[in-house]
C-alpha cells in the first residue's frame, strides 16, 4: 500500500540546513499498521508530512497504492490518504461546527449525500447525531479527537497517517481512542502509519515498526520482538528501558549484600 524508498528531507539551505530525514526506506502492506518511533526530533513527523505533501521530498520515492506521488499531491491522493494530527485542540477550527468540519471535504470532492455521510462518520467514531452542531469548545479532548478521525474517514480513504493521535489525551481516553482506531482498521480494512514516542502505544496498534534516530532508520522490528525484549539495537533497547519508566527497587535488594 505504501512504499518509501531512500526518502530524504532537507529543510533550508546553507547554515539553516536541517537534514530531517536521511535515506529512510520501508514498506507497508495493505491493511497493516506500521509504527514509527524514536526520540523527539528524530524525523518521525517529517516522514508523515513528506508522504502527504506537507514537507518536501528532497530525494527518494514515495509510492501509494502502486503509484509514485506527484507534487503537488493530486485531489485523488487525498481520497486515498488522510492524516490525523496530535493536538485535537489545534487541528479543528474553533468557529466551525462539527457539521461544517465534516462537510468541507465532501464539498471539495463534490460528494453528494452530505447529511447521511456525516451521520455515518459520527456513528463510526462512536458519537451520536446530537454532536453534529456542536463547536470544538463544547467537546472533550477525546470527543475532539473522534471528530478529527471522523473528518479523516469521511472520504473513505485507504490509508491513515496518525501523528501521535493520543499523546494530548489522558490515559483512560488514550486507551479508548486506541481501541477505536484498532476497531476501525479491522472494520474498514484501513492501512495505518502511526507515529509515537510511546512504545506501548505502538506495540498496541502495530505489527511492525521502524525505530528512528537523528533522521535515520536504526532498526526495523516487530511489536512481538519489543514485548519479548528481543530488540537487537542498543538504541532500541534504551527506548524500551525508557518507556518502562521508573522501576521501584526494593530496599533489601538496593542495599549492598552483606559480606
Ligand atoms: N519546517 C521545518 N523547518 C526546519 N526544520 C524543521 C522543520 N520541521 C521540522 N524540522 C526539524 O526536523 C527535525 C525532525 O523533526 P520532526 O518534527 O520530524 O521530529 P519528530 O521525530 O516528529 O519529533 P517529536 O517527537 O518531537 O514530534 C528536527 O530537527 C526539527 O527541528
Ligand atoms: Mg513529531
List the helices and strands and how they pair.
Elements: E1 2-11, E2 18-28, E3 33-38, H1 44-52, E4 59-64, E5 67-68, H2 75-80, E6 81-84, H3 88-91, H4 98-108, H5 114-124, H6 141-153, E7 159-163, H7 171-188, E8 191-195, H8 199-205, E9 208-213, E10 216-222, H9 223-227, H10 234-244, H11 251-254
Parallel strand pairs: 3-8, 3-9, 6-7, 7-8
Antiparallel strand pairs: 1-2, 1-4, 4-5, 9-10
Helix pairs in contact: 4-5, 5-6, 6-7
The structure holds adenosine-5'-triphosphate and magnesium ion.
Explain this structure:
- This protein is an alpha/beta fold.
- The protein has a domain at 2-87 and 156-242: 3-Layer(aba) Sandwich (Rossmann fold).
- The protein has helices at 44-52, 75-80, 88-91, 98-108, 114-124, 141-153, 171-188, 199-205, 223-227, 234-244, 251-254, and strands spanning 2-11, 18-28, 33-38, 59-64, 67-68, 81-84, 159-163, 191-195, 208-213, 216-222.
- The strands form 2 sheets. Strands 6-7-8-3-9-10 form a 6-stranded mixed sheet, with helices on both faces. A 4-stranded antiparallel sheet has the order 2-1-4-5, with helices on one face.
- β4 and β5 (67-68) form a beta hairpin.
- α6 packs parallel to α7.
- The longest helix has 18 residues, at 171-188.
- The termini are far apart.
- The chain binds adenosine-5'-triphosphate and magnesium ion.
- Residues 44-45 line the site of magnesium ion.
Amino acid at each position: 500500500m505504501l512504499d518509501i524508498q531512500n526518502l530524504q528531507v532537507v529543510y533550508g539551505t546553507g547554515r539553516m540546513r536541517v537534514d530531517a530525514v536521511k535515506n529512510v526506506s520501508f514498506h507497508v502492506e495493505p491493511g497493516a499498521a506500521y509504527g514509527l518511533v524514536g526520540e523527539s526530533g528524530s524525523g518521525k513527523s517529517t516522514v508523515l508530512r513528506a508522504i502527504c505533501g506537507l514537507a518536501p521530498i528532497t530525494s527518494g520515492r514515495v509510492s501509494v497504492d502502486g503509484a509514485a506521488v506527484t507534487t503537488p499531491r493530486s485531489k485523488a491522493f487525498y481520497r486515498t490518504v488522510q492524516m490525523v494530527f496530535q493536538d485535537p485542540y489545534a487541528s479543528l477550527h474553533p468557529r466551525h461546527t462539527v457539521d461544517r468540519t465534516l462537510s468541507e471535504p465532501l464539498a471539495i470532492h463534490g460528494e453528494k449525500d452530505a447529511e447521511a455521510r456525516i451521520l455515518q462518520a459520527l456513528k463510526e467514531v462512536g458519537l451520536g447525531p446530537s454532536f453534529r452542531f456542536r463547536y470544538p469548545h463544547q467537546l472533550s479532548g477525546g470527543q475532539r479527537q473522534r471528530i478529527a478521525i471522523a473528518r479523516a474517514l469521511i472520504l473513505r480513504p485507504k490509508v491513515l497517517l496518525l501523528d501521535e493521535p493520543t499523546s494530548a489525551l489522558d490515559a483512560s481516553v488514550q486507551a479508548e481512542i486506541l481501541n477505536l482506531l484498532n476497531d476501525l482498521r479491522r472494520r474498514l480494512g484501513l492501512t495505518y502509519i502511526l507515529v509515537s514516542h510511546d512504545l506501548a502505544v505502538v506495540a498496541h496498534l502495530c505489527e511492525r515498526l521502524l525505530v528512528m534516530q537523528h533522521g535515520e532508520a536504526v532498526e526495523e522490528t516487530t511489536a512481538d520482538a519489543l514485548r519479548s525484549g528481543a530488540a537487537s539495537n542498543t538504541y532500541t533497547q534504551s527506548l524500551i528501558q525508557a518507556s518502562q519508566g521508573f522501576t521501584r527497587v526494593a530496599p533489601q535488594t538496593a542495599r549492598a549484600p552483606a559480606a
